[in-house]
């Protein structure tokens, strides 16, 4: 399908923070980014968020009909305003991720979306990778490689996504293709915003620590931070990936702390996980470009800047859109799947061979 042609692809992402659906248009042939197009955000209501939260950890066959329906309907609303696109990359909502056990589960039926939209929909991006022994995540790295080319980078650099979970991609833009040996190294760094959000919900009834306001008034408690960094995940060599709630018991580490110190310490944990992760880079990167909601948190950004040897900037510094990068990634990956190009490789997910993840529904 579309061999070598530039197509207008719409990508969607409903991330681990459960805040809403991002949708973005990318013009690409599946190799080169030609242009970025319009974007759209459709927030989940509080009721919808509660339903999704209740479905976390569930698998196909469990009682997830309401969650699945609302994910599909929210996507249809997010996509309703777009015109003139050729196909859709539909990530869905990850409810459970256990790549070495039960697999990986993204809620939402791409075939239903294809029928409703009258366009081909590429979906279920992670299962093929897991079947071939991969982590099934992260998948954005092949897109990060294209972004590195798009910004004209000449030396190795890193992309860091600070979503619910953090993930890091080291890219060598001197390579020709993302699947070339030595072009990419990628993995999940650890928890980023998800446990901090859970803390804010428990202690303050707020969805997140806006602008790091609470953390800014507290102190990082070294003992709790050390216990956190003792976790075997940080010593594990990449590739490696995480479920949203893999570190949910880290809330116990700050249970005795006052709210502000607890928020500062959890922000410090997210930053420290990234610092540990940077040790795995094959060569020191020229710079670290940050995407995802955590780049809006000045306390988290300041901690990263203080702890790393390279410049740390939001991706906006190079003209990219940090709120939409993941949605754009799934637009790009959809075109790769449609063209039969790989979307992951041994150094991004640990998969045994190059694999193109995803099912194409509709014509
Ligand atoms: N102004 C802000 N101040 C502090 N934190 C913020 C701000 N804006 C967003 N965030 C954090 O970013 C989170 C949303 O990030 P993002 O949308 O990248 O997550 P996601 O895509 O759902 O996650 P993932 O990439 O893990 O799937 C919010 O839940 C919040 O914790
Ligand atoms: C299983 C799953 O949905 N993982 C997400 C999650 O959110 C961030 C991190 O954990 C990353 O591994 C991945 O998403 C991004 C988009 C990825 O696959 O690159």
From TrEMBL:
Residues annotated for ATP binding in this entry: 15-22
Keyword Transferase: yes
Enzyme class: transferase
Keywords: ATP-binding, Carbohydrate metabolism, Kinase, Nucleotide-binding, Transferase
Catalyses which reaction(s): 1,6-anhydro-N-acetyl-beta-muramate + ATP + H2O = N-acetyl-D-muramate 6-phosphate + ADP + H(+)
Its EC number(s): 2.7.1.170
GO biological process, one term: 1,6-anhydro-N-acetyl-beta-muramic acid catabolic process
GO molecular function per UniProt: ATP binding; kinase activity; phosphotransferase activity, alcohol group as acceptor
Pathway: Cell wall biogenesis; peptidoglycan recycling; Amino-sugar metabolism; 1,6-anhydro-N-acetylmuramate degradation
InterPro entries in the cross-refs: Anhydro_N_Ac-Mur_kinase, ATPase_NBD
Protein family membership: Belongs to the anhydro-N-acetylmuramic acid kinase family.
NCBIfam families, per the entry: PRK09585.1-5
Task performed by this protein: Catalyzes the specific phosphorylation of 1,6-anhydro-N-acetylmuramic acid (anhMurNAc) with the simultaneous cleavage of the 1,6-anhydro ring, generating MurNAc-6-P. Is required for the utilization of anhMurNAc either imported from the medium or derived from its own cell wall murein, and thus plays a role in cell wall recycling.
Protein name: Anhydro-N-acetylmuramic acid kinase
Annotated source species: Thalassovita taeanensis
């Amino acid at each position: 399908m579309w061999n070598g042609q530039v197509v207008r692809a719409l990508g969607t992402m409903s991330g681990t923070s459960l805040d809403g659906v991002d949708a973005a248009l990318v013009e690409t042939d599946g190799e080169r980014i030609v242009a970025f197009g319009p974007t759209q955000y459709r927030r989940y209501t509080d009721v919808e968020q509660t339903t999704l939260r209740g479905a976390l950890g569930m698998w196909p066959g469990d009682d997830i009909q309401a969650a699945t329906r609302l994910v599909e309907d929210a996507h249809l609303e997010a996509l309703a305003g777009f015109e003139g696109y050729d196909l859709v990359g539909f990530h869905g909502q990850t409810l459970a991720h256990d790549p070495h056990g039960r697999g990986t589960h993204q809620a939402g039926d791409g075939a239903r979306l294809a029928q409703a939209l009258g366009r081909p929909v590429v979906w279920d991006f992670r299962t093929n990778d897991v079947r071939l022994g991969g982590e099934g995540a992260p998948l954005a790295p092949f897109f990060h490689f294209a972004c590195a080319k798009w910004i004209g980078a000449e030396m190795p650099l890193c992309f860091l996504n600070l979503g619910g979970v953090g993930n890091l991609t080291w890219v060598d833009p001197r390579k020709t293709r993302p699947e070339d040996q030595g072009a990419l190294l990628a993995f999940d760094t650890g928890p980023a915003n998800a446990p901090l959000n859970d803390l804010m919900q428990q202690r303050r009834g707020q969805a997140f620590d806006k602008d790091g306001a609470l953390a800014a008034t507290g102190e990082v408690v070294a003992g709790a931070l050390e216990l956190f960094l003792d976790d075997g995940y940080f010593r594990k060599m990449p590739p490696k990936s995480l479920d949203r709630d893999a570190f949910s018991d880290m809330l116990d580490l700050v249970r005795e702390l006052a709210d502000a110190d607890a928020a500062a310490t959890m922000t410090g944990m997210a930053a420290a996980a990234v610092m540990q992760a940077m040790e795995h880079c094959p060569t020191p990167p020229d710079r670290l470009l940050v995407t995802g909601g955590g780049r809006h948190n000045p306390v988290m950004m300041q901690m990263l800047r203080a702890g790393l040897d390279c410049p740390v900037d939001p991706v906006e510094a190079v003209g990219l859109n940090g709120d939409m990068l993941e949605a754009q990634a799934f637009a790009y990956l959809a075109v790769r799947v449609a063209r039969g190009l790989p979307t992951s490789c041994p150094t991004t997910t640990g998969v045994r061979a190059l694999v193109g993840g995803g099912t194409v529904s509709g014509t």
